[in-house]
Amino acid sequence: MTDLAATDPLPKPKRDIAPILLPIALALVTIPLIGSPSTWLTLTAASLAMGMMIFIMASGLTLVFGLMDVLNFGHGAFIAVGAYIATLVFAPFAASVQADSLWVNLAALAPAALLSMAVSGALGLVVERVLILPVYGQHLKQILMTTGGLIVAEQTLYALWGPQIIPMPLPTSLRGSFIFGDVAIAKYRVLATLIGLAVFIAIQLVLNRTKLGLLIRAGVENREMVEALGYRIRRLFLGVFMTGSALAGLGGVMWALYREQVHASMSDELTVLIFVVVIIGGLGSIGGCFIGAILVAMVANYGGFLVPKLALVSNILLMVAILMWRPRGLYAVTSR
Amino acid sequence: MTDLLKLSGVHTHIGRYHILQGIDLAVPQGQVTMLLGRNGAGKTTTLRTIMGLWPASAGEITLGGERIEGRATPDIAQRGVGYVPESMAVFSDLTVKENLVLAARDGPMDDKQLEWIFGYFPALRRFWLSRAGSLSGGQKQMLSIARAIIEPRKLLLIDEPTKGLAPAIVMALIECLKEIKRKGATILLVEQNFFAARELGDNVLVMDNGTIVHRGEMAALASDVPLQERLLGLSLEAHQ
Fold it and tell me: Would you call A130 an interface residue with chain B, using a CB distance cutoff of 8 Å?
């Protein structure tokens, strides 16, 4: 029997580390520009925390894009809903939030985050069934439906909670900073970074160590073939959509605590950042989304410090630069 | 011989194009039925319509007596239909192993079946943990076929498995498909390579302009050079 070219040399798969080196290079390049090491460290820690929060909010969206080619412009609604739900939990737990003990604070924070995720996930179920299902494969209608959904969600929040900004103070033990010599790193930023890393590791484990993860990765690449193998990708997509919505809700709680306030259109400032992250990361790529989120946050923080006038457009410039280098994003996993 | 798959008056439209224009065909159980025809005749569309990837706009498709037209692709696959597309469609970001793990839908892979596959496609064992995207075209084709046969299937739909492959690999693929046939598989095989068709086919269907223009035994077509020239615009002698 012919050996079927088994002896042919297989090109060694290249480990594409250039995107990983990008944020490291950016961080190193800015050291002399910023001048003060302590300022640089503070800005870097802020970038990591902000990047992790954006990653949490964007990770679901990138899978939704990659898996089902759905343009969900209403993703921000889950962020705002998550934040508002947290305020509901925080109100009765005000004493726990203001207690000096970290564990008591976390005991109030955890149910707020979990309930926010549950409600955002459930809202995701409704949105997918009612708004997305009828417009699969029709991008223009998806944009119209999801943008309309976002407006309805924001107005509903205004109607229920009023137009005023709701304060959302950080729990007492998460206030202040860790001081290392001249360097001050906000405690909450450390927590946000740890939560972001935990979410990233959890997603990577699911995607790489479980059959469900294999299905998601395969579906992002070729959903038709996944169906031809006998798997119902619509159900899989619904699960991913709900998970992405729940993560957006978690991100909303974290962002609200970061800003210490909640308002119905709080996602407006984030939506552009999230879409930039999803696009530069490569549609459907969690790794690309992770690196993209850190890059976006670095550019926002370093850029805001070094060239404040460019802060508003810095992320668009970043996106243009990345897409000129890699037109399908840092890690292209779909042909789109 | 019972017909496992039957298409009666099947039409398929893709956008404003009317591709299949009333297909009637039968695939007998345990036999290899070749679907031949020039490019654009509608062969791939026929397989995709059976698989539910493009919906039939009219007509009936039955599998083992059960109507399947209008069913979703996963439903059809779960009824025991394996599909090897022309593009191979291996999941390039996944390893060889992961591709096969996904294909073994009903549980862990059968070790005996896996060993049998490795016997024909040793490259798959060698590159077991390599990303499928880094395989050569022939190796991807092996993986694509292995994915379709890792679990028992009632019916295999295979679209041009020899396309673009080196002659040595084509020969090995033919040997493998012959062995699958000996094991009693029912196969509907689209092929442009007449040599492969002659080696594998029990029956033959020839398509043109979205209709079946000839049906019969493969051996009869292989021995009738004028008929080959009329139907396919070739003769086996010319091909050899």
Answer: no
Domain ranges of chain A: 37-325
pLDDT tens profile A67-91: 778 889 999 999 999 999 999 998 8
User: Which residue in this structure is represented by tokens 């109030």?
Assistant: A108
Angle at B233 between CA B227 and CA B235, to 5 degrees: 60
Residue A127 to residues A65, A72, A78, A134, Cα–Cα distance (Å): 15, 10, 10, 11
Nearest to A282 by CA among A16, A65, A27: A65
CB-CB neighbors (< 8 A) of B126 in chain A: 6, 10
> What is the ipTM score, two decimals?
0.90
Neighbours of A42 (CB within 10 A): 21
Pick from B21, B84, B5, B6: which is nearest to B56 by CA?
B21
Quote the CA–CA distance of B228 and B240 in Å, as a whole number: 13
Estimate to the nearest angstrom the gap between the alpha carbon of A205 and the chain centroid.
17
Q: Architecture of domain A37-325 in CATH? A: Orthogonal Bundle (1.10)
Cβ-based contacts under 8 A for chains A and B: 103
- Confidence grade of residue B71 (pLDDT, cut at 50, 70, 90): very high
| pLDDT tens figures, B119-160 | 888 889 999 999 898 898 888 998 999 999 999 899 999 999
A19: closest CA of chain B, how far (Å): 17
What is the pLDDT averaged over residues B28-37? Answer: 94
Do residue A1 and residue B172 have CB atoms under 8 angstroms apart? yes
